[in-house]
Every structure is written in structure tokens, then in C-alpha cells.
Inverse folding.
């Protein structure tokens, strides 16, 4: 699959997004939302579950791994359910199967994928393509589009009044992203060098940023660097995991801007007092003054994704282990 | 706190359980359940979320860490919400705070705790004490009582018809538990010895057993043994984490009896082909013939807890590191 070959233009993406939003608004009896995917795409769903959980007055939302969703055959999936799915290639078998399972049970299905001709796009009722790789617009990446759709749903169904602020924030991504990469370039390089021989690096966050910490742990560290890792929820940290903290145990801790920041701050305070190997990334330094305060919290995870990627690139460089190398994926059937 | 000093008798526990069930049945407008706690008690809530998610036709359920629950101030907590909490000591500040937050918002609160005079017991409207330690009845431990309450809720609200089967299954615990400990004694000792120098051990499960895998990772390994760990969801394994699998990377993989067993089986098949250090614990060998087939899946997690504890005890023994030793807890304020 070549990135440029499949690139869907921004105007088409906007019309797909509008069509999905309209279809959801039209299906007036929807009362539940299931957000389902695998791995990095599942991680994208976790802040969306947080967005619903802190904003929705009537809509219920649950994020589930796609294999878990289909196999457990959740008892409350029917015509009142919206199922939002995501797979980058659109070929992830578990996610395609989840879309089929959801449709068989009468749910409305909306899939996000890089490839609008993929099996997932075929399986779902509505499709929103996103951009990725060389030449993409930072405002048309998958996580930003999912956030915009959900803000639209919350406006249409519950008059949340957030969609314009989210749209405006996302429109700033093409300026914010390169500025943040530049701002973190030196720190990322230093961290990559000093971490190059670490066999294990933990990540930590809560609220809408937990998914980003999870994604970094399972995709960037475990999958792409073969470095052991686990995402620790900042609220859980003091109830077990903190006992493995020592001065030489490395952590990446996120300080976000949502309601759970005090939970993250408490863990960061303990971590920085007991380990010398803590990288703290604070969204207060992301320069979000032009983003509406009411959406800064939920918006910040999009930028943590970008900033953390710079640290992963630097780590890969200093370890001589490109992020594209795999031991099993693309090499065998499993 | 002395275990025997606070021991609540079985008859009192049964009457507390009945009172909580009755109060929930009486509050007819309840449509949502939040399951909230921290660490090992939060892990107990995860199979309960699965039980609701696969059984409930009308009730919605969400499990959340207690600090996350209170700080995010979920938008849908009100008089239609039942909040079930658990803290062993009843003093966990985040869980006590969660009970207060829930009550302030009009929710019905039910707390499970070892100590019925604790701050959590004071903060919640209904309390169910449970037994623990020397002399306890295996049928009156916290996770078994929570499962019974929820089966009762599902019967009362939705005529699920499962409470009798769950009650009968729980009544078999006093016979099942010692038999399982005995059956696993030799294997646990061998595993404890062969794992004594491992710096990291992963756990893996899905569905109603994920909470048990999570608990073992964060409480037994990280907290009580200072061994690095992470609970990997079996459905997520192939989407990142499997790349850290090598012949010398140790895993404990659970094969349960619920709807997601095929998800666990697929991960176990890959694991056992690519690592020589995989301990597979299969609930098909738990001797549950006398447990009603319709509840075997959700019941099995109670026994995984017991069996895994035998492996933790053996590991602690061979490492010369008692499970009771802490680096921070009980030693400082945090």
C-alpha cells in the first residue's frame, strides 16, 4: 500500500465527515456508542470515551478492543447503537469482523480508515477516510477527524456547543504541529540518547491522555522498539505500580489539561522525587492560547501524539533500530 | 488493623447483602452503574463490568479508577446511578472521596470493605462487609459477594435468572479453593523457582479474566515483588505487544471459560510457539463440573485469583522477598 496512491483529498474527507454526522443525527433513537478498534487505533478511541464520559448528558459510550467486542457479543448492541470503528489499513480482521457483527445486530456503523477501498470501508455503512504520511494535512489525520465527528454528535444530540471550538482547534494543527516538533527537537534527541540502553520504559497518564500513554507503550516501545513497557494509569500508580519506582527506572509522564490533571500531577510529584529518569511532558507548554479553554483538555491528546513521536524517532535513531522493523508483523501468518 | 478483631460473621454479611439488593431494587429508576475503586479493588470491578456488558439488557455499567471517577466528574452521575465501591481497609482516600462525590450527586452508593466501621463504610449509604485472612469463609470474600449482588440486581431488574446459579457456585468455593491450591502446589513451586531471577513477567487475558491478570501484574508482581510487569489484553497482543515476545520473555497467560476464550487461545497459541517461558493456567482444569454452565465463564475469575496467589506465594518464597514487604507504602506519606 503506497501512501500517496490512496491519498483522499480534504474536500472529500469533509463531505464524508458531514455525511456520517448527518446519518447519526437522523437516526434519532441512538442512545449508546461503542468505540472499537485494535492497538494504536483502539488507543485513539480512549480519549473519545473520555470526551463522552465527561460531556454527554444522555449518550452512553464504551471503548473496547475489537476482538473483545465481537467475541463477548455485548448484550446491548442494536438499532439504538452507533459503532465507530478505525483501522489504518482497513484490513485488520478483528475490526472488519466487529463492523460486520455490529451491522448484523442493527447498529449504525461509521469507519475511519486511511484506505476508503479497504474491507473495513466495505463493511461499514459510513466511511471517513483520513490522511497520513508525506504531504498530509495535520488537520485531516484520523484522531482529529474522530474528535470532530464526536463533537458534532454532541452538538446535534445534546446542544453541547463544542463543535465549533473543536473545529477551530483542529484547524490550528497545521501550525501547531511543526512548531511543537521544533520546540521538542533538542529535548527529544537528548532523551533518545540517554535512554538508548534502557530495556524498559513505563508511560503514565490519566483521563483523556491515557490512550496516548497506552499507544506509546504498546506501539512505539513494545512493537517498534522491542522495549518492554506498560502504560500506568496515574490514579492507579499509588495502588501497586509505584513500588517499582527507583532512581534508575525510566518513566514518561504526561501532564494534560483536562479535569484529571491533578491526578497526573500527584503521580509526577512522586515520580520526580524518587526517580532520576522521568521525562515529564506538560501540555501547558504546548502554546494553546488560541484554542478555546473549554476544549483545551480534550484537544491536548492530539498534540501529545505528535510530541511523543519526536521522542520515539530520536530513540529509534540512537538505538539504530528503525521504527519500521518488525520481528513478526509482515513476516508471518499469525 | 487486626484481621480477627474486625471479622464480620456470615449472617451479618448476608443481611447486609440482602439490604443492599433490596435498596437497589426499590430505586426503580436506576439505569446506570459505576464500579469504582483503586488498584486490586478496581481489578475486582473489571469482571463485574464484563458481567453487565454481556448480560444486561437495559443497565449500563462502567468501571473506573476512583481518582479518575471523582476528578473527571462524569457527566451522567445522578439519582439514576448506582455506584458500587470497594476498599479493603475502607480508608483509601480516593475511594472515600468517590463515595462522597457520588452521594452529593444523588447516586445510590454501596460499599464493600473488610472494615464496616471504616471511613468508606461511613461515606456510603449501604455497606457490605467481607471476610479476609485466617478463618475466613471462601464464600464470603469480597469478589464473590460483589458478583452475587450484581447477579441479584440483574435478576431483580431484568429477570436474568442467574442469581441462584451464582449463589450455588459461590457456595462451592469453600471446597473448590483448597482443592485448587493443592492441585497447583507443585507447579507453583516449580514456576516460582524457575522464575526467581526474572526482572519482568507479563500477564495476559481477556474478557472477565483481564481484571485478574491486571491485579496480578500491578499488585502481586509490581507492588509485592518489585518485578516489572504489565497486563496485556489478549485481543491487543497482536497489535503491538507481541513484538516483545522472545523465547526467554516470561508470560502468565489465562485461558478462561467466558465468550472471549478464543481470543485468549489465539494469543496462547502464538505465545507457546515463540516463548519457552509461558505459564498457561486453564480454567477447564478447575473442576467446575458442578457449577451451572451458564455462569462458569463469569465465575472462573474468582478461582484464577486463588490459583495465581499460589504462584505468587511460591515466587516470593524462592526470591526471599515476602509479599508483605513495601518500599513506600506504610513507610511514608504520599
Amino acid at each position: 500500500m503506497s501512501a500517496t496512491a490512496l491519498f483522499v483529498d480534504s474536500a472529500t474527507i469533509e463531505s464524508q465527515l458531514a455525511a456520517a454526522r448527518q446519518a447519526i443525527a437522523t437516526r434519532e433513537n441512538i442512545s449508546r456508542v461503542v468505540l472499537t478498534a485494535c492497538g494504536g487505533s483502539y488507543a485513539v478511541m480512549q480519549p473519545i470515551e473520555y470526551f463522552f464520559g465527561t460531556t454527554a448528558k444522555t449518550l452512553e459510550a464504551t471503548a473496547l478492543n475489537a476482538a473483545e467486542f465481537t467475541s463477548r457479543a455485548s448484550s446491548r448492541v442494536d438499532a439504538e447503537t452507533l459503532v465507530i470503528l478505525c483501522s489504518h489499513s482497513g484490513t485488520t480482521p478483528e475490526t472488519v469482523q466487529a463492523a460486520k457483527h455490529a451491522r448484523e445486530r442493527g447498529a449504525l456503523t461509521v469507519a475511519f480508515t486511511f484506505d476508503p477501498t479497504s474491507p473495513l470501508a466495505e463493511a461499514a455503512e459510513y466511511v471517513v477516510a483520513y490522511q497520513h504520511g508525506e504531504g498530509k494535512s495535520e488537520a485531516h489525520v484520523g484522531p482529529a477527524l474522530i474528535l470532530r465527528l464526536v463533537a458534532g454528535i454532541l452538538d446535534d444530540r445534546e446542544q453541547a456547543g463544542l463543535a465549533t471550538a473543536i473545529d477551530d482547534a483542529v484547524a490550528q494543527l497545521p501550525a501547531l504541529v511543526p512548531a511543537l516538533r521544533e520546540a521538542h527537537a533538542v529535548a527529544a534527541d537528548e532523551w533518545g540518547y540517554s535512554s538508548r540502553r534502557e530495556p524498559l520504559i513505563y508511560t503514565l497518564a490519566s483521563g483523556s491522555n491515557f490512550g496516548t500513554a497506552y499507544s506509546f507503550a504498546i506501539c512505539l516501545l513494545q512493537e517498534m522498539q522491542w522495549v518492554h513497557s506498560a502504560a500506568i494509569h496515574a490514579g492507579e500508580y499509588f495502588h501497586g505500580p509505584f513500588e517499582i519506582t527507583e532512581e534508575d527506572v525510566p518513566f514518561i509522564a504526561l501532564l494534560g489539561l483536562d479535569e484529571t490533571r491533578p491526578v497526573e500531577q500527584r503521580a509526577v510529584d512522586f515520580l520526580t522525587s524518587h526517580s532520576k529518569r522521568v521525562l515529564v511532558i506538560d501540555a501547558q507548554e504546548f502554546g494553546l492560547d488560541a484554542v478555546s479553554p473549554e476544549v483545551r483538555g480534550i484537544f491536548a491528546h492530539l498534540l501529545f501524539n505528535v510530541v511523543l513521536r519526536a521522542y520515539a524517532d530520536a530513540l529509534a535513531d540512537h538505538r539504530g533500530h528503525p521504527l519500521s522493523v518488525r520481528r513478526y508483523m509482515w513476516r508471518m501468518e499469525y
In short: The domain at 3-169 of chain B is CATH 3.40.50.10490 (Rossmann fold).
